[in-house]
């Protein structure tokens, strides 16, 4: 068995994605929770300055997509990337949709006005009290700036409600035929989508949208069970 260490922020959907990939492949791993106060030092290990990265028998692999593909190459069974070329392309496209579109909704909603305090408690649970008070406004401003620059953060609440409902209807529809969004078994696309979408449901807008969709709840439960989900 390889020696695998996952460097993570436990609350990050990308780190959740890597935990699920490793768990689905039955690969034992340790986690190292990166201290919030030491974010600038991530760059010493990963030039993009982002988490997750893993150490696989001493070799660093960064970015959740590259990690998933590297794991697939090293441990092909059970597969997470479909063998059929069109299904493979679809799985990768949907994974990217989750990482690059759903991600901004989860960021904007979980760290927005309505839900910031609750989410911050999870993010900062390892920090001493006095540091929490100093970091909270910086983090709030950082998320506001990032999501406003990207665009989702400029939308009024009623538009976000409609967007989330539409995105959830898309996921519900994609999985309707087989229980999975591509082909007839779990793929990296299901993992990427569920990691981001479940973060969206941590917000009030997301929880309300999910409550109206029993089939989506069932899909989340299915993917959670197969990937031994350990959400924070
Ligand atoms: N494309 C990257 C995204 C990773 C990412 O955005 N990580 C965030 C946490 S959710 C991060 O490390 N942010 C720290 C920073 O940007 O300074 C992946 O798939 O791994």
Summarize the structure.
By secondary structure, the chain is of the alpha+beta class. It has helices at 13-24, 64-74, 85-110, 116-123, 129-150, 157-175, 188-200, 204-211, 214-226; strands at 4-8, 30-33, 53-56, 59-62. The protein is built from 9 helices and 4 strands, in the order βαβββαααααααα.
Can you describe this structure?
- 35% of the residues are buried.
- By secondary structure, the protein is α+β, with helices and mostly antiparallel strands.
- Strands 2-1-3-4 form a four-stranded mixed β-sheet, covered by helices on one side.
- The chain starts with a strand and ends in a 6-residue tail after the last helix.
- It has helices spanning 13-24, 64-74, 85-110, 116-123, 129-150, 157-175, 188-200, 204-211, 214-226; strands at residues 4-8, 30-33, 53-56, 59-62.
- The longest helix has 26 residues, at 85-110.
- The chain has two domains: 4-74, 3-Layer(aba) Sandwich (Glutaredoxin), CATH 3.40.30; 85-226, Up-down Bundle (Glutathione S-transferase Yfyf (Class Pi), Chain A, domain 2), CATH 1.20.1050.10.
- It binds glutathione.
- Glutathione is lined by residues 9, 12, 14, 39, 49-52, 63-65, 99.
